[in-house]
Each structure stands twice: as C-alpha cells, then as structure tokens.
Design brief:
The complex is a heterodimer of chains A (336) and B (389). Chain A has 336 residues and is mainly β. Chain A contains no helices and 28 strands. Chain A has strands spanning 2-9, 22-26, 31-38, 41-48, 54-60, 73-80, 85-91, 94-99, 105-110, 124-130, 134-139, 143-148, 157-163, 169-174, 186-190, 195-200, 204-210, 217-223, 226-231, 235-240, 246-251, 257-263, 268-273, 277-285, 292-301, 307-312, 319-324, 329-335. Chain B is built from 14 helices and eight strands. Chain B has helices spanning 6-28, 42-56, 59-65, 74-85, 94-114, 120-135, 140-157, 162-175, 184-188, 279-285, 291-304, 326-335, 353-364, 378-388; strands at 90-92, 182-183, 203-205, 215-219, 225-230, 236-238, 269-270, 318-320. In chain B, strands 1-8 form a two-stranded parallel ribbon. In chain B, a hairpin with a 5-residue loop joins strand 4 and strand 5. In chain B, 39% of the residues are buried. Classes of the chains: A mainly beta (336), B mainly alpha (389). Strand 21 (246-251) of chain A pairs antiparallel with strand 4 (215-219) of chain B.
C-alpha cells in the first residue's frame, strides 16, 4: 500500500509529452532531483527527503549563439554511467547534455535543418544510457544516435547511427537488471509500435525486431531479459527480449499510456496514463516453467490530471512520483 | 512540433467563434419590423454569419493555412480572428473581443483534452464544419467552399497514424498550456472546477480500439495462453458503442465540437481566480521582439488571402456586445488583469522596410470605417491600425 506524501512544486507546469518526468535519487546527499519539461524550458527541482526543502533551476533549450526562437524540448532525462551522470535534453533543434545539476552544458548536437520545412516534424526524442559508456538518443526520422561518453570532460563523439526504424522514435531503454554476456542491452521503440532489440559490444547489432500491432508504443523498459512496453490503446505488453516472443498482455489503462518505469531490485513496474491512473505491477519469472508473470499490486488516481510522467524514486520501488499536463507539481507516494 | 496543426486549430477556434457570435446575435436581435436603425435583425444576423464564413473559407486563405508550418503565438493568431470578426457590418469593442477569444480557446482546449483518441480531434473538426454548413445551408456558393475545405481535411488527415495525431494533440496542448479561465457554462455543467481545471471522468466508454481495463493474459514460449487474471483498475469503464464517421457526411457519434450554446444559456467568463497560473503567460507577453518578424511574415501571407469586403460607406457598423449591458462591457475592459491582456505584436517600423511595406499594402486593402486618422505615411497608418486591434 502506498500513501500520498508532500508534493514537490515546480516553477512551471508540465507539458503533455511522453515520459515527461525524470528522477535522480542522490542517496548520499539525501536529496532527490526531479526534471519535467514545459515548452522550451526544463524545470529542475531538488527536494529533501521530507519534501520540505526544495530548490529550483530552469534550463532553456537555446542553441549556442545564433537563434532567438527557443525550440520545444521533447524530453529531459538523467543518464547514469559508472563514472558520471549527465542530464540530456532533446528538442526540435537537437540534443544538449549537461552536468547532472544542470549547471554547465558539456555537449551540443544539432539536428539537420531542412529548407523548406518539411511536412514531417523534426525533433529528437528517446534517451538512454547503455553499456556503461554510451548515451543513445532517437530522432523523428527513426534514427538512433549513439554517443560515446568519456569518463570526464567534453570530448563526446557521435560513434554510431542505428538505422532500423522507419517511424519517429518514442522511447529508448537499456537493461536495468542482470546482464549475461550476449544478452539484450538496448530496446528502441517507435511511433508505429515497432520495437528493436539490440546487443552491444564495440558496436550495436540488431538481435530481434518486434512488429507493430497497430498502436503506437510510447514507453518501454527492459529488465532481466523482459521487455515491458506501453501503448496508445492503454495496453502493456511483455516480451521475451532475446526472441521477441509475446509473453503477456495487460489491458491496463483506459487511455494512452505515457510512462513506464521499473524498480530493478524488486521487478516492480509502474505505468502512468492519460486516464489519471498510476498502476503498480509486479513482474516475476516462474522458476519451474520459465514463464513470465505479472500481477497487479496497486492503483492510484491523480484526480483530473492526464499523467505525462511517472517514475520510481528508489531502486526497490518503495516510492514513486508523477506529474501531469498543466500540473505545476510533482505528486509523490511512499510505501507504508 | 507537428507542422500540420494550424488548420485544425484555426477551423475549430473559428467554429467556436461562430457558435458564440450566432448565440449573441440571436440574443440581441429584434424582429425586423420593430427594429430601429441601430438594432440587429434576423436578416442582419444571417448576413454577418455569411460574410464571416465566406471570408474564413476563402480559397487563397485556406491554401496558406494548409501549408506545413509551426504554430504561432496566441497573439499572432488573435490578430487573424480580430480581422475575421470584423469581416462584416459587425463591430466588437476590445473587451468583447477579448471575451470572445477567451471563450473560443477554453472551449477548444476542453475538446482537445477530452478527446478519447487523438484521431478524434478530426471528428471534433468535422462537428464544427457540419454546423458551419448548417449556418449557410441557403447559400450554395459558400457551401461549396466549405465542402472543398472538408475534402482537403480528409485528404490531409485521414491517412495519419495514431502517433502522428498524438503529436498534433501534444502541439495543441502546448499552445493551450496554463489557460484556466473559468467559463460559466462549463462550471454549470460541472465539466470545469472552480479552480479553472477541467473535470476528467474516470468512467464511461473507453475509446474505440481500447479494451476495458482489467484483464491480464499470460502466454508460454509457444504462444499459448496459460493464465488469465482479472484485476480492478479503479475506474468504471464500459465498451464503446460505435465509431464516428470520417466521411464527408455521417454520424460523428462524438459530441465534442457540437454547439453547446443556446439563447437560454448565455456565455460568461470569470477573470478572478485565473491569476494562479499566470507565470508562463506573463513570460509569453514579455517575449523578445525578434519573434515578431516571423509572425509578421505569417500574418502577411495569411492576411493576403483574407479578402475582406469593404462595408458600404453609407452603412453604419453594428456593434455587438458579448456582455449583457454596455456598462458590464466597460467594467470588463477596465478590470481585465494585465497578465491576461492579449498584447498586440510590437512592430518596429524602422527595422524591415520592405517587409512592412508589403504588410502595409495588404493591410491598406482592409479599410476600417472609423474616423480618418491624421498620419503622414502608410507605415504610420499600419502601426495605428495594429495598435487599435
């Protein structure tokens, strides 16, 4: 059972964008960082454990030097690598990487500008750290850009471009659980609902592709070789990462799912959708049959709010946070 | 973000504008024989509706509208509606125009938010167009223009995927972000809370294509279903009945976008209580001027297609009041919170001479029958005209 805790206020309300909440728990400092996107701004809030002490920072997505028009940010997410943590922003103009507290920008990658403007929207979206040394970012044309991140400094380079998707990338995730050699490392999802599963060595190679079934996939997570994907028709699907086989379907929500998150130490899954609900689930694998199981644990309704972001605040899944469209706060819940 | 958003935004806001104007004109109209020279009649109402609809669906204007482009600010869009509302013999004061725009935007925000599927925004648009066609059912020429636009919409949007529609919806929601103006008809119907936020129901039919939540199905590695578990998701949902029609004619099923006003349900807005979420609104108004240049380009292209009929010199302009009395309108103008005023784009005439000459030429074709202004150049005329909007 979870009970509502003190909300964290934001300097601006959250926009209706997929996966629009990122959380970085800093255990040693007893602080939690939150990030939510509003238009061309990212609101950062740093809260103490009891939620009483909050400090704010706002980042603007302006590219260095030239432009005057701010571009819309599509996502902001912390990428945790063994040696450093970077805050990555994706927007209509490109990709920005900052130090984890948002204080200094360390890298900027511009998307190609096309003249005349095409009918297709141009933007970057989908962010994940992978294999302890890469940050992968998706684009509206279906490309996945792989950036090589040094353990410190600004010498970040684009090392690979993965071309497998034909529709806009919606979300990217990497394995958060145990990872035997040769196993799936990265999953990329797109607007049509297709998923690509990748293995990573020096380069990424395609392991398997899961075809779309008619609905957009807005959020995806990978844990112990199990893919959890959230779709526009409110359904969650579980797949075997190595083979791509469908293992479970859950009619979880009455509206479009906007966020999924996984607590790696317990296998808890959360889903947040436009229907105002956060649902908590438990994933497991039967030791005898090897079958993947999922059970429903808890429902939480954030009244009159279309949720756009939801995350666990700790790796056991004892607490979670969510935000919604037009909401100027992050609602938090903790286990009793 | 999505470059296909503007036609939907413009047509739906335009549709709401027509619903409101129609309701106010009916409320203020006097039977023909009894009307004095400065009072509305039914004939006048039909004429105003015809004039505005003809202007809205003008071929050149629609061509500009349908070009792939980013959405512009609320300020820029408001300028186009100001022009549109004055496309006939009707005149609106600033306060009434502000109220009209508030109502239009809150109504469409509500419709976008509550659409069961993102694709249903198209059904909402079709609802507006169906109603517009009913307004001008006696005029075959204008009817043809509207049908032409209808077909353009079907061509452009029918084949878009659900993901692309969601992008359009997300773009619209960014446009409407932080707007919480309270509308009395919404408050009465309990679709809006007293804090200005809309009520989101957790019951009723699920969208077409979505299953009622509550079922988990698990499969083994061969794909056979091995387990089925039910759970309670918290809401109270049922299956949907049928899907709305996306054809030129048909039952849309969805009620969003149909006319919710009538003579007995007048429209009011409350300005107080909307002050909480103004932080970003004030930021938009304080945005640096350089944005104005792109917006000027947009306006020049769009206005170029708006062929406004010049009212006959001898006819007086009829003033429509969106409030119940003149005193109320004056009071509203004086007490409108600074943060909620739709400040017009600040044009710096010295910056781009060629740009402004082009705009001045186009604007010069729209004669507003007010007192003649003392001015020395076309540029000054233009500035004065824009300032008066």
């Amino acid at each position: 059972m979870y009970r509502k805790e003190r909300s964290v206020p934001l300097k601006s309300s959250s926009s209706a964008l997929y996966n629009n909440l990122s959380v970085l728990p800093l255990r040693d400092k007893q602080l939690t960082y939150f990030a939510a996107v509003h238009g061309s701004t990212v609101s950062l809030a740093s809260a103490s454990a009891d939620g009483l002490s909050v400090s704010h920072r706002q980042l603007q997505a302006k590219e260095g030097g030239l432009a005057v028009s701010a571009s819309i940010v599509t996502q902001a997410s912390w990428c945790v690598l063994p040696s450093r943590v970077l805050l990555v922003l994706t927007s209509q103009k490109g990709i920005q990487m900052y130090e984890s507290d948002g204080s200094i920008m360390v890298y900027w990658h511009a998307l190609d500008v096309l003249e005349p403007p095409p009918a297709q929207a141009v933007f970057a979206r989908g962010i994940a750290a992978a294999s302890g040394r890469f940050i992968c970012v998706g684009t509206s044309s279906g490309l996945v850009l792989v950036f090589d991140i040094p353990s410190k400094g600004t010498n970040i380079t684009l090392s690979e471009v993965l071309e497998e998707h034909r529709d806009s990338i919606t979300d990217i995730t990497s394995e958060v659980g145990e990872n035997p050699d040769g196993a799936a490392e990265l999953v990329t999802a797109d607007d049509s609902g297709a998923l690509c599963v990748w293995r990573a060595k020096e380069e990424f190679s395609l392991l398997t592709k899961i075809s779309a079934f008619g609905w957009s996939c807005s959020s995806v997570k990978l844990w112990n070789g199990v893919i959890a994907a959230g779709y526009g028709n409110g359904q969650i699907r579980l797949y075997e990462a190595m083979s791509g086989a469908l293992r479970a379907t859950v009619s979880a929500h009455a509206r479009w799912i906007y966020a999924l998150d996984l607590a790696p130490l317990t296998g808890k899954l959360l889903s947040g959708a436009e229907d105002s609900y956060v649902q908590i689930w438990k994933l497991s694998r039967s030791p005898d049959t090897g079958d993947i199981e999922i059970e429903h644990c808890h429902s939480e309704c954030v009244t009159d709010t279309q949720l756009c972001g939801a995350r666990f605040c700790d790796p056991e899944g004892n607490s979670f946070a969510a935000t919604g469209y037009d909401l100027s706060e992050i609602v938090r819940y903790g286990q009793v | 973000m999505s470059a296909r958003t503007l036609p939907l935004l413009f047509l739906n806001l335009g549709g709401e504008m027509l619903y409101i104007l129609d309701q106010r004109l009916r409320a203020q109209s006097i039977p023909g024989e009894k009307a004095r020279k400065d009072e509305w009649t039914d004939v006048d109402r039909k004429r105003v509706m015809n004039d505005i609809i003809t202007t809205m669906f003008n071929k050149k204007f629609m061509e500009e509208l349908f070009k792939p482009q980013e959405l512009y600010s609320k300020k820029a869009l408001r300028t186009v509606y100001d022009r549109l509302a004055h496309a006939s013999i009707m005149r609106l004061n600033q306060a009434s125009m502000d109220k009209l725009y508030d109502l239009m935007t809150m109504a469409f925000k509500y419709q976008v938010l509550l659409c069961p599927r993102p694709k249903d925004i198209l059904l909402v648009t079709f609802n507006h167009l169906d109603a517009i066609k009913d307004f001008i059912r006696d005029s075959p020429n204008i009817l043809n223009q509207v049908d032409e636009t209808f077909r353009q919409l079907i061509d452009m949007y029918s084949c878009l995927s659900a993901g692309e529609f969601q992008l359009i919806r997300q773009t619209l929601l960014i446009f409407f972000q932080d707007m919480h103006i309270r509308v009395s008809i919404f408050l009465k119907d309990k679709v809006q809370n007293s804090n200005g936020r809309f009520v989101l129901p957790i019951s009723g039919p699920v969208p077409w294509g979505t299953e009622v939540p509550g079922l988990i199905r698990m499969f083994n590695c061969n794909g056979d279903e091995v387990k089925r578990v039910e759970f309670t998701n918290g809401g109270n949902y049922i299956s949907p009945q049928r899907e709305g029609s996306f054809d030129l004619y048909g039952d849309r099923v969805l009620k969003l976008g149909t006319n919710m006003y009538s003579v007995s349900r007048p429209v009011e807005t409350h300005m107080s209580g909307a002050s909480k979420s103004l932080a970003s609104h004030t930021k938009e108004n304080a945005a640096p001027n350089p944005l104005a240049k792109e917006e000027l380009n947009f306006l020049a292209r769009l206005m170029g297609g708006l062929e406004i009929k010049k009212p006959n010199g001898s006819e007086p302009g009829f003033r429509l009041n969106l409030f119940t009395t003149d005193e109320e309108e004056e009071y509203a103008a004086l007490t409108r919170p600074e943060e909620l005023s739709y400040k017009v784009i600040n044009i710096q005439a010295t910056q781009d001479q060629q740009q402004n000459e082009e705009l001045a030429r186009i604007m010069g074709e729209f004669e507003v029958t007010d007192q003649p202004r003392q001015s020395t150049s076309k540029g000054d005329d233009l500035l004065a005209m824009m300032d008066e909007l």
